[in-house]
Amino acid sequence: MDTGGEWDAKHRARRAETAGDVDDFVRRALDLLDAEAGGAAPRASGRAPIAWDLACGRGRHALELARRGRRVTAFDRSAEALAQVAAYAAREGLAVETARVDLAVVGDRVSEDRATRDRAVADWAAADWAAGRPRPDLIVVVNYLDEALFDALPALLAPGGALLVTTFTVDHPGEHPSARFRLARGALARRAWGGAEVCLSEESNGRAGILARIGAMPAREVD
Ligand SMILES: C[S@@+](CC[C@H](N)C(=O)[O-])C[C@H]1O[C@@H](n2cnc3c(N)ncnc32)[C@H](O)[C@@H]1O
Prior knowledge:
Helices cover 35% and strands 21% of the residues. The chain is an alpha/beta fold. It has one domain (5-213): 3-Layer(aba) Sandwich (Rossmann fold), CATH 3.40.50.150. Strands 1, 2, 3, 4, 5, 6, 7 and 8 form an 8-stranded mixed beta sheet that branches. Helix 5 (105-112) runs antiparallel to helix 6 and helix 6 packs across helix 8. The longest helix has 14 residues, at 79-92. It starts with a helix and ends in a 10-residue tail after the last strand. The relative contact order is 0.14.
């Protein structure tokens, strides 16, 4: 696995007292999920719902999900990021599992050979780190753009689960992130999301976010 060294250095430089503020769109989407019956309610099994934060960085959203009563696993390739997540969680007395994974495995295979795309997605979904875990009720991906990964997400969800994804778009001002990490205008909301219903969608100032749900939930559009 790539060690994530470049990101290790960035995260080390950002080390602070806290993991940072929750993204506004993420907060609103979580408020919506939690307000509806079954949002953060126990599963039928009586256990807390499960959430995964993919490419979690220093853990601002993993921690918020744990505060909101979910059992959280925070995934990232950077060991430094995950060490910080664990430290912030311990400081708040929150239980957050961390897992070091390379999420690029699907994207790398797809770029090698477009014809293997479906196979790559299926393989990724069956990867040890995902297959060995109970399916999550919510997957969060914030500021990590990998469309092949996005394709794989619906298959990983528990029945009735939700996807919360935000990314930069081509309209984002300034030099960062690079063009490779900026999605076309409107593209996030237009994705199929494996048939999941997009119930919250927002795009402004070069940022786009969606909340998509497998199963019914009232649709909303915010511009
Ligand atoms: C822009 S940060 C976003 C962090 C977090 N989601 C947030 O919003 O605060 C991108 C994160 O992706 C992680 N990352 C980059 N490439 C990765 C990969 N191939 N597999 C797993 N994580 C990766 C980096 O370590 C970094 O923490």
